[in-house]
Amino acid sequence: MAKEKFEDALDKLEQIVREMEAGNLPLDSALKSFEEGIRLIRFCSAKLDEAERRVELLLEDGHSLKTKNFQDDVNDE
Amino acid sequence: MKEILSVSQLNDQIKIFLEDAFGSLWIEGEVSNLRRPQSGHVYFTLKDDRSQIRAVFFRQFGNFRNRIQNFDLEDGMKILCRARLGAYPPRGEYQLIVESVEPQGTGALQKAFEQLKFRLASEGLFDDSHKKKLPFLPRCIGIITSPTGAVIRDILNVTRRRFPSVDILIAPVRVQGTEAAGEIIAALRNLHTSDRVDVIMIARGGGSLEDLAPFNDEDLARAIFSSTIPVVSAVGHETDFTICDFVSDLRAPTPSAAAELTVPQRSNLLERIHDLQNRLYRTGQHALTRQKERLTSLQARFKNPRRYLMDYSISLDMLKERILRALEQNAQSGKNLLQQLTLRMNHANPANRLREKRILLGHLKNHLRNTWSQHRHQQREKLHALSALLSSLNPLSVLHRGYSITRRLANGEIVYQANRLTLKEKIGIQLAGGAIDAQVEKIHEE
Q1: Quick one: angle between helices B218-225 and B180-194, nearest 10?
Q2: Which of B79, B95, B189, B253 could form a disulfide with B54 if both were Cys (CB 3.0 to 4.6 A apart)?
Q3: Residue B202 contacts by C-beta under 8 Å, 6 or more apart in sequence?
Q4: Taking CB atoms and an 8 Å limit, are A74 and B172 in contact across chains?
Q5: A35 contacts on B by Cβ (under 8 Å)
């Protein structure tokens, strides 16, 4: 399964909430949508709560590439 | 011992000598006598105020090596050339073989910039249809810029403040000078190769047109155009425009602005998700409540069919009663009507009237009878009187006293005057007892 994108998840969540608010869903669809909504909220929240970023330098090393941590006073604050 | 050379030999040696001695060189001067034959190569003379040299700019260099500024040479233009010296033995001439050209001076730079911008625009490189959409929330931003200085610090600051967990991959380059454009192109390629970034930012602080020259490079423009990853250009200050800005998918006025445009504000997203979560719970709760209410209402309406039967039998009874009552009422009113009619018919019975008339007739009969007999009696008495009167008046009664009545026999006319008769005329004489016929014998006049 392809990696889910934050924006797609957020859009889907928005759509689910709007559909449910319209109130036209049969009960079992509403329950399914609700579960899916909860899952999307968890997913999006997890994305937002992801760990601290990595800041790296991309360097050429002969014919290949390597990365190196970028030390910066901003990041060390 | 004198060495004797042929012309060809000399020119060949000069060629080797010249080309070895000078190699690659930089030379500046003014363009004159510019020619562009069908071949596509460009011939011109480069000169200064005291001297001149012929130059050729081969088409392949014109297309691929003129990378600082792609512009059209014009007579009178001041240029800086990277060239080597070449001899042409068949004619014993030497000339500059130009590999790249840069215009000299600000006016020329500006001109070159306008020319390139116009050309790339006509090719469609700036068209909106080619602009790629930036990811809403990038996982990793590739930044092509100088690893030192304010620009990278600003970008790191802003991105960290807005969304602390977005990774940054910096491709360090020089952002000024002749090597810069090539390094930036290489950085673009490397970031594609690394396969980690989903948006690329090309950033540099403000500067003069010359400082920004690397970002007006045609090859860089084409590299950005063919990038499969969205590119944000943040070159110079708000008022500086570069080719890089035009060809990128998004132009940011400053590096900080680029950071803001690339990374969403985490707190906003959190707020939005919170809002959606609340709405989801509320609407979920609502859906359940609504269905529950429906169920309750349906339960209330759900009845044993026996109850319907009872209802029906009750209403059946009621209908029966109503029918009976209605029938009864009908009968009663019929009876009343009959009575009325009987009464009226009795009133109108002809026997009664007959009896009345008969009585009336009796009365009338009696009356008539009485009247009649009375009348007859009167008439009889009247008759007696009249008859007595009559008999007293009868002319014939005088005859009893001796009188007679003489008549002309011919016509029965009573004769009053004797002279009315004629002689011998037959007359009748009536007497009280019988009559005599006679003949006039003599007439006596008085």
Answers
A1: 20
A2: B95
A3: B144, B145, B184, B215, B224, B231, B232, B233, B234, B235, B244, B248
A4: no
A5: none
Quick check: B167 and A10 CB within 8 A?
Answer: no
Q: Which of A6, A30, A47 sits opposite B287 (nearest CB)?
A: A30
Does this complex have an ipTM over 0.95?
A: no
Interval B339-398: pLDDT, tens: 998 888 888 788 878 888 899 999 999 999 999 999 989 988 888 888 777 777 776 777
Taking the C-alpha atoms of B430, B434, B439 and B441 in order, what is their torsion angle to the nearest 10 degrees?
Answer: -80
Q: Would you state the structure tokens that stand for residue B228, as one six-digit string?
A: 């499969």
Of B92-106, B235-249, B297-311, the least confident: B297-311
**Separation in Å, CA B317 to CA A37, B169, B306, B322:** 59, 92, 17, 9
Nearest CA in chain A to B154: A74
Listed residue (B208, B210, B262, B261) closest to B236, CA to CA: B208
What are the b/e assignments for B258-292, b being 16+ CB within 10 Å? bbbbbbbebeebeeebeebbebbeebbeebeeeee
Residue with tokens 């906003």: B268
pLDDT in tens, A1-40: 346 788 888 888 888 888 888 877 777 888 888 888 888 8
CB pairs under 8 A between A and B: 117
Q: Which helix (H) or strand (E) holds B430?
A: strand B426-430
How close, in Å, is residue B200 to chain A by CA atoms?
13
Dihedral, B186, B192, B197, B203 alpha carbons, nearest 10: 30
Q: Which residues of B touch A14 (CB under 8 A)?
A: 276
CA torsion B206-B210-B216-B218 (nearest 10°) is: -160
